[in-house]
Amino acid sequence: xxxxxxxxxxxxxxxxxxxxxxxRRPRVDPAAAVAAAALAILAFGGVWAIVVTDPLGGQPxxxxxxxxxxxxxPExxxPExxxxxxxxxxxxxxxxxxxPGDPMPKSGPVIIRVPGAEDGRTAQSGARAAPxxxxxxxxxxxxxxxxxRVAADGRRPLDAYARGAEARDGARVxxxxxxxxxxxxxTLQALAALPAEVSVAFSPYGSDVADLxxxxxxxxxxxxxxxxxxxxxxxxxDPGPQTLLTNLPASANLERLRWSLGRAEGYVGLAPxxxxxxxxxxxxxxxxFVELARRGLMFIGGAPNRxxxxxxxxxxxxxxxxxxxxxxxxxxxxxxxxxxLARLEREARSGKVxxxxxxxxxxxxxxxxxxxxxxxxRGVALVPVSAAGGAQTRS
Length: 395
Known about the structure:
Strands 6, 7, 8, 9, 10, 11, 12, 13 and 14 form a nine-stranded parallel β-sheet that branches. α8 crosses α9. The protein contains eleven helices and 14 strands. The protein starts with a helix and ends in a 13-residue tail after the last strand. It has a domain of 249 residues: TIM Barrel (Alpha-Beta Barrel), CATH 3.20.20.
């Protein structure tokens, strides 16, 4: 008998023992193991939430280092400076609120208040914003940018951004020059040449219309935006890709309108870019006027000195409305412009604000400059167009 013969019976018994142990060992399902681990983590998280009190639990938290340039280190500050700081403010959740000059907490989250940005606005509360200021309370976030809206306290963009008329009685004229914003240099020249009392309307198609509107407002000027609307000879005369059309549903036209409204901020109202047919089509125009009234704007447009549908529809919607009495540049020569400006003065003597409309051109700038020079001597005051739209402003 060899050594191998002696080992065979033992090896056989060992093999049988291993097989039986393998049959008795429970098989582990990988999916079940993952589920069990997840339940354990959730249970631990629930216990942690009950035991640990953290008002910011579950919220994203960012810790930022703020360097106070030019300020003395806290250790070097005079004791009386610390004593003079305001009592600590806290938010509703108990988070400290600090302002420039306040000592920073040594640890924990803080809310930093920037001067002039309280409650999300940059303008002081009141009826009218200062030149160039944008009141954030009068803006609504949208896919197209900030859209005008009526503030919670009832203030309208028409009131907040109106220039305000110094003359409140007597013969008054308002001149609106449209077509700004497409050519930057031409727009800047117009803003430099036109009197500040002349209101300006911007096409929405300029690449930097928001910046140009801000420049106009920074000079204390009153601004309107233009929205392209369907003319009678459309599509031979096509104002642009966002034109409001009489055959579109109201929802589509409202989206196009909001695109135009989102092109800039701080304007008092809207004027049409073309639009003769659209302004005569009540089913298309009515929802647009309701939207503009809801947003606290005014509208200037319609046929001069002729009854049309725009005025009664605006009245039904509660929309401040001003109709041009004269199209100043209906004739493209100097004599024709001068005659139209003289007619605008005569309209102003009727007791209402007479509104003139013109499109930007070098000829117009020259004739307006000459006309305006002797206007006060003739007993006529030049006022912004909001004076014809019922803006409520402070002196």
